[in-house]
């Protein structure tokens, strides 16, 4: 009669065999290498001199001296430095607006007695299937006089139906008795939201805020449509125009730059712009990563 091991753990929580652990470790190592190698190449190329880039024939894999000339050249020019400020401002303001509207909408839709609860919820869910389209969106922005305005980078994408649904599901999981007791004590809806619901929803709020922030930081399409003044271009559009489309960089001039050195190669400047565009997400993500499982999975499944 065979012996059955009872551990009280789910099958996927059971410790695997040695071969299985080695295989998982190898797969994770390959995934990490696939992620880190491009970042390593981008940063190393941005820190390389013209001679190093020419010897490598393009992207640099083996370091041969470090120079920050590409970054000095970028921030000495008003185009990229202004774009960084624009992207930072749009990201901060847009995330605040989007998170505020999403939280208010999700909380209202999580309360069954809300006015027009079902029709509004139906419209939100309908956004998963239908999108207004590019032309109506453009005509709406133009008719509101938002062309060449920073608000045109925020308002058209201010609310995500997916994020509202995730927040609503999380809010519905909060015990109703807790909210009813606050109402008995005389608390209004806004006070309940601020004092009870949001403190209990820090995980999902942080994750949704990260989704919005990364979306605004990386957005370039709205800027291409609605912004004609190049001084208002965000960094993502600069990245697309100068790196992807290979338009000439105003800083990539041949000869001697303002620092008394030979100007860095165009490829090093392009990779420096890419590194600057990627850096904020790399800095913020580790602080929010611990909330992902609790915030998104619980918010999407429960309720």
From TrEMBL:
The chain crosses the membrane at residues 27-47, 84-109, 121-144, 150-171, 192-214, 267-288. It is a multi-pass membrane protein. It is found in: Cell membrane. InterPro entries: MetI-like, MetI-like_sf. Residues 84-280 form the ABC transmembrane type-1 domain. Coiled coil: none annotated. Keywords: Cell membrane, Membrane, Transmembrane, Transmembrane helix, Transport. Its main location: membrane. GO terms for biological process: transmembrane transport. Gene3D superfamilies: MetI-like. GO terms for cellular component: plasma membrane. The keyword Cell membrane applies. The keyword Transcription regulation does not apply. Belongs to the binding-protein-dependent transport system permease family. This is ABC transporter permease subunit.
């Amino acid at each position: 009669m065979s012996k059955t091991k009872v551990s009280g753990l789910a099958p996927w929580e059971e410790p695997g065999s040695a071969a299985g652990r080695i295989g998982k470790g190898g797969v994770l190592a390959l995934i990490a290498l696939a992620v880190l190698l491009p970042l390593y190449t981008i940063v190393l190329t941005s820190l390389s001199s013209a001679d190093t880039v020419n010897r490598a024939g393009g992207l640099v894999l083996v370091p041969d001296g470090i120079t920050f000339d590409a970054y000095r050249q970028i921030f000495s020019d008003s185009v990229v430095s202004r774009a960084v400020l624009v992207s930072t401002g749009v990201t901060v303001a847009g995330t605040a607006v989007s998170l505020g509207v999403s939280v208010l909408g999700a909380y209202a839709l999580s309360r069954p007695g809300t006015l027009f609860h079902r029709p509004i919820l139906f419209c939100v869910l309908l956004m998963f299937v239908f999108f207004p389209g590019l032309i109506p969106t453009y005509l709406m922005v133009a008719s509101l006089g938002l062309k060449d305005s920073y608000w045109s980078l925020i308002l058209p994408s201010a609310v995500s139906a997916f994020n509202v649904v995730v927040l609503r599901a999380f809010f519905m999981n909060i015990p109703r008795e807790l909210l009813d007791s606050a109402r008995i004590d005389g608390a209004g809806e806004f006070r309940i939201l601020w004092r009870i619901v949001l403190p209990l929803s820090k995980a999902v709020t942080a994750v949704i805020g990260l989704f919005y922030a990364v979306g605004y930081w990386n957005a370039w399409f709205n800027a291409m449509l609605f912004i004609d003044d190049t001084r208002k271009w965000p960094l993502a559009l600069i990245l697309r125009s100068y790196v992807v489309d290979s338009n000439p960089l105003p800083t990539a001039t041949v000869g001697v730059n303002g620092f008394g050195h030979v100007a860095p190669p165009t490829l090093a400047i392009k990779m420096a712009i890419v590194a600057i565009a990627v850096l904020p997400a790399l800095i913020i993500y580790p602080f929010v990563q611990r909330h992902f499982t609790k915030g998104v999975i619980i918010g999407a499944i429960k309720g």
